[in-house]
Amino acid sequence: MNPDLLLWLVARVSGLSALAALSLALLSGLSLRTGVLDWLGSNRALGSLHEYTTVLWVPLGAVHVLALLLDRTARIGVRDLLVPFLVPYGTLAIGLGTITLELLALVALTGLLRRRMEVRSWQWIHRLSYVAFGLLFLHALLGGSDLGDPAVAALTWSTAGLLGLLTLARVLWGRLPA
């Protein structure tokens, strides 16, 4: 197998896996706040799922980025991980991925520093994960070749829809009654 094709496949699989982990992290986090999934298990179980999937996206995202950096046909450099919208092809999609990576890194870093931060500051930074997911969704839509697969498209769109509904419920009603 061609090494670049292998790297492209690794990038696709790890990107989709990172998207799935982030989706579960957001869904479980929103579920903790809205109480909508209390019937599934204890807050401890949902909290554990949230913490696990929040950490899980990091290596998956790292593999995604590393595979794209090593893939000669992708033509993505280290600079493109720091400065968005410089890649000559797929500029918008890859630029959104860069911004998403930076936002999620900020959310993850402040998650580690949570106990040392003012609560309100941490909450507002943590809420950037909603923005990051929206940008990640657009990144997948505009640059992902796998959304043509019905199963991948169904999972991606249904997750985005569910996140949208839970976010709306959270904004309008706060914690829902059990």
Please give a structural write-up:
The chain is mainly alpha-helical. The chain has two domains: 1-74; 85-149. Helix content is 76%, strand content 0%. The protein has helices at residues 3-34, 43-70, 78-82, 91-112, 119-126, 128-143, 150-173. The longest helix is centred in the N-terminal third of the chain and has 32 residues, at 3-34. The radius of gyration is 17 Å and the shape is globular. The mean pLDDT is 87.
Radius of gyration: 17 Å
Strand content: under 5%
- Pattern of helices and strands: HHHHHHH
* Low-confidence residue ranges: none
Largest sheet: none
Tell me the helix content.
over 70%
Which oligomerization state do the chains in this entry correspond to? single chain
Structural class: mainly alpha
**Shape, principal axes of CA atoms:** globular
> How many DSSP-defined strands?
0
Distance between the termini: 53 Å
* Number of helices in the DSSP assignment: 7
Mean pLDDT: 87
